[in-house]
Structure formats: C-alpha cells, structure tokens
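Reply to dn_fold:

You asked what the input looked like. This is it:
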Amino acid sequence: MEKQLRVSGSSEEAYINGIRYGRKFSAIYVKKNCPIAVCEKPCTSFQMFRNCPYCDCDGFIYREPCISIEDCSFGGVCEYYICRYTSINALF
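and this is what came back:
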C-alpha cells in the first residue's frame, strides 16, 4: 500500500504529513522515492540532482522541511524549518 502525502496550512504555517512547520513554504516538490523538497521566497523553482528535486537559492541548496538538524542529511543545518546545505554533494 502506497503512503499518501497530506499537505495543508494557513497563512502562517504548513502541515506536511501531520508535522507542523511554523512557517509557509513558497513551493513544495514531491517525487516518488525522493525526499520532499521545499523552497523559500523569493526562490520557487527546483533543480534536479540524481533525479530528485532541490531548490538552489542565493548560493545555498535547500531541500527537506525540518524541525531540527536531525531531519537533515549529513552536512545540512535546519534553518527556519528548511534543511540548508552549502554543497549539492551533501544531498546524497
């Protein structure tokens, strides 16, 4: 049975699969077999790396929504509810 994605929100927060993030995201990209990717304003477009989405914005790589650093891949930091990376190589 395939897991269903649930996304909802208000003007100030987002819920993804029942997890509350204390902010809205400018864009969300969901692709099977990939981590959920989110973007922050003013950036709203996604790139692909190894066939999975990420957001390249102002010289940083943004991907997963997060509550803490444990939600990010190795080398990422949780900054304002988005995992931020300095190198695309840290994503995989």
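The chain has a mean pLDDT of 86.
Hope that clears it up.
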